[in-house]
Amino acid sequence: HNDLHTNNIMYINTDKKYVLKLINIKENTQERRQIWKDNYSNNLTNREYTISKDLYHPNIIKLYYISYYNINSEKYLGLFYEYCENSLEDFTSFHELDNTETKIVGYQFEIKIACKYFLNLVSAISYLHHKNIMHRDIKCNNILICNGVIKLIDFGVATNEIISKISVGSYKYSNQRVINGINYNKSIDLVSLGIILYYMLIPYQDRQYEQKGNTVLERLTFIKDIIKNKYNNTNLDSLLEKLFENNDEKKIEAHQIFDEPFIKEYCTSYEIEMNKDYNRLEREILKTLLQED
After folding, report:
1. CA-based, 20 to 30 A from 86: which of 61, 98, 140, 145?
2. Spatial distance between the Cα atoms of 105 and 97, rounded to a whole number of angstroms
3. 107 alpha-carbon distance from chain centroid
4. pTM here?
5. Helix/strand/coil for 20
6. Contact partners, residue 31, CB within 8 Å, separation at least 6
7. What is the mean pLDDT of residues 199-204?
C-alpha cells in the first residue's frame, strides 16, 4: 500500500489496533531473499524494514511487529505499525462548498498550531538526520495526526546514503536536484518541510501553485510570495528562505531550525527544548514499549 492510514488491513490485539503494511517480495530476486542477512542492500523491502525498526521518536510512526504472508501465490513482508486515524492530507486537501454553494472553502491551521506541528516535524527530521537518514518523501500523505500528535511515516525510499542522485519522492514537495537526478544530500528534506508549512498555513482555495507547470524555483518563489502577502511576518519569510536555499554553503541544518525566530515566536522555550532532546525522547519511547510488553 502507498500509505498507512487508508486501504490497509488492521490487526487488532485486545484493545490495541495496528496497521499492517504489506510489501511484495520478489522471490526471483536474490537481493530480496537476503532481507535478513544484508542490512545494507538497496532494495525497497529491506530499506523499509531496516530503517523503521531502529527508530524511537514520538513523532515517527512505530514499527511493532513483522510477519510473512502468502497471498495469491505471492510472498509479502508484513509490517505492523501503530494505528492513526487521520493524515495531514485529510486537512490540507479538505474542502467543501459554503452556504452559497459557489465557493470552495478549505481548512487553515491557526499559525500557533501550525508552528507546533512544524516543530514536531523538525524534531523528527533532526532525529533522522542525526542518524544519517534522509527521508526523501516528506508530504502531507506521509504525515499522520494521532490524538493531536504528528507522526511521520513511510520509509520506503529513505536512505542512509550521505549523497544520492536517485530521483524519488513526490514532485510538488521536491527539490530541483532530485527531479534532475543531480547529487543531493539530506537538506532536500528541508525543502519538503517548507512546503508542508505552506500547506498548513494557506487554505485550499488560496493554493494554486500545484497547477502551475513551472520550475521548482518558480514554484518555491510563488509559495514565498503567497506567505509574505498573507502573513507579513519577517520571521516566517526568513525561515522559508533558509529552507528553500539552493546554495550548499548557505543551507541551514535541521537542528538549527529550533533557534529560528519564527519558532521562538509561536512555541514556548519548554516545547522547543523538549523537542531538541533526542536522547530523552528515545528513552521515553523505549520505556513506553517495555511497559506495553
Report:
1. 98
2. 6
3. 20
4. 0.83
5. strand
6. 38, 41, 42, 43, 46
7. 90
Range of weakest confidence among 12-26, 149-163, 215-229, 261-275: 12-26
- Neighbour-count burial of 185, counting CB atoms closer than 10 A to its CB (0-12 exposed, 13-18 middle, 19+ buried): middle
Residues facing residue 152 across a β-bridge: 60, 143
The amino acid sitting at 289 is: L
- Asked if pLDDT for residue 100 goes beyond 70, the answer is no
Tell me the HSE value of 122 on the side-chain side, using a 13 A CA sphere.
Answer: 29
Class of residue 38 by CB neighbours under 10 A (exposed 0-12, middle 13-18, buried 19+): middle
42-52 per-residue burial string, b: 16 or more CB within 10 A, e: under 16 = eebbbbbbbbb
DSSP tag of 6: S
The 10s digit of each residue's pLDDT in 75-84 is: 888 888 988 8
Please name the residues in contact with 156: beta carbons below 8 A apart, sequence gap of 6 or more: 23, 44, 47, 48, 137
68 membership: H or E segment, kind and range: strand 63-71
Dihedral sign, Cα of residue 59, residue 65, residue 67, residue 72: negative
